Amino acid sequence: MSTDFTTTRRAFYLPDGVTYLDGNSLGPMPLAARQRVADMMADEWSQMLITGWNKAGWYVQPRLVGDRIARLIGAGAGQVVMGDTLSIKVFQAVSAARVLRPDRRVILSDSGNFPSDLYVAQGLAKAVGAELRVVAPEDVEAAINDDLAVLMITEVDYRTGRRHDMKALTATAHQHGALTVWDLAHSAGAVDVDLLGADADFAVGCTYKYLNGGPGAPAFIWTNPRLAEQAEPILQGWMGHAAPFAFDMEYRPAPGIERMRVGTPPVIAMTALDAALDVWDGVDMAELRARSIELTEAFIAGVEANCPDVTLNSPRDPSLRGSQVSFRHPHAYAVMQALIAQGVVGDFRAPDVLRFGFAPLYNDPSDVARAVDILGKILRSGSWDRPDFHQKAAVT
């Protein structure tokens, strides 16, 4: 194995006494990020002021950082650009795909998709006179037909960890003349994505989960090169213009992926993300995937052997899930608060899901063993059943 996961673990700040299994919501802080951002503020923003757009390369940062992510998702150089939020990138991708299929009205998704993606698609459908159809995850392939314009799917289900077969579903969509939009929020940095190999059409993703870019880190968008010069997103922004500083009154799309830029890039946040991506330079994605399966398999076996009153809510076959595992418990929220109080951080998803994310860059078998041990003790003792553990916070 060429990837040294002991070394990658040392690249993160992990608080003493904490077993962190929530990187599928927010990755921990890379040690390099603090100094990189401090340097940027001291040497660039404070000294260069507005000239930093040219002198420090802030203007081209979205493409340079995008190139670093491209390798992790099976894309090529010059095909990924950063900026804005994931919801904006979903809107851009779905709207561009819909424009490329003007005679079709149907956008298809599944009930395991993240609600935010569905909200975006609902709003878009209302605005352009399209129809959003939502089916169960296992029924997606059968629902693809000749009416379909866009298949919009999150590759890894945020609650169960169920993983769709990107290559197979994309092929089926193409057979029926439809285009695909893949949300990689729970895939990028977690599983071995191959966008070009799957011949996907569009992909989007966030960078604050497994890519560890920090809270609110910018999203990314990818367009297959065969569509890059045709794609016309409805949301057309200044930075996506062919000549932003000509200040034309009429929009002219920039060439290729640059047209998917919208607003001014968040330079400070992107600097933190760029530092976070350093650790990936020596990581083999196939080895990352193998390590993920090792950790999740051990966790499932340990929980089922030692923890009463929980039911596996993820696919048992590791090839059918991402890098997260969830279990159901009737009082999942209180159980998770009890776990967090003892230094094992996962999260809760309504209505009854205990969710645990495994990030091979910093999680190891000792994290699995500690989490299983403490969860078992909490469930056997009933120590989760305290009034304070039942009080829900604003963010769950």
List the helices and strands and how they pair.
Layout: H1 5-9, E1 19-20, H2 31-48, H3 52-55, H4 61-70, E2 80-82, H5 86-100, E3 106-110, H6 115-128, E4 131-135, H7 140-143, E5 148-154, H8 166-175, E6 179-183, H9 195-198, E7 202-205, E8 220-223, H10 267-276, H11 285-306, E9 311-312, E10 324-328, H12 332-341, E11 344-345, E12 347-349, E13 353-357, H13 365-381, H14 387-390
Parallel strand pairs: 1-11, 3-4, 3-5, 5-6, 6-7
Antiparallel strand pairs: 2-8, 7-8, 9-10, 10-13, 12-13
Helix pairs in contact: 2-10, 4-10, 5-6, 11-13
InterPro entries: Kynureninase, PyrdxlP-dep_Trfase, PyrdxlP-dep_Trfase_major, PyrdxlP-dep_Trfase_small
Modified residues (N6-(pyridoxal phosphate)lysine): 209
Cofactor: pyridoxal 5'-phosphate
Essential attributes:
alpha/beta, 396 residues, 7-stranded mixed β-sheet, single chain, globular
Tell me about this structure.
This protein has 396 residues and is of the alpha/beta class. Helices cover 37% and strands 13% of the residues. It has helices at residues 5-9, 31-48, 52-55, 61-70, 86-100, 115-128, 140-143, 166-175, 195-198, 267-276, 285-306, 332-341, 365-381, 387-390, and strands at residues 19-20, 80-82, 106-110, 131-135, 148-154, 179-183, 202-205, 220-223, 311-312, 324-328, 344-345, 347-349, 353-357. Strand 3 (106-110), helix 6 and strand 4 form a beta-alpha-beta unit. Helix 4 packs parallel to helix 10 (267-276), helix 5 (86-100) packs across helix 6 and helix 11 runs parallel beside helix 13 (365-381). The radius of gyration is 21 Å and the shape is globular. Catalyzes the cleavage of L-kynurenine (L-Kyn) and L-3-hydroxykynurenine (L-3OHKyn) into anthranilic acid (AA) and 3-hydroxyanthranilic acid (3-OHAA), respectively. It comes from Paracoccus amoyensis. Pyridoxal 5'-phosphate binds at residues 86-87, 114-117, 154, 183, 186, 208, 238, 264. One of its GO terms (cellular component) is cytoplasm.
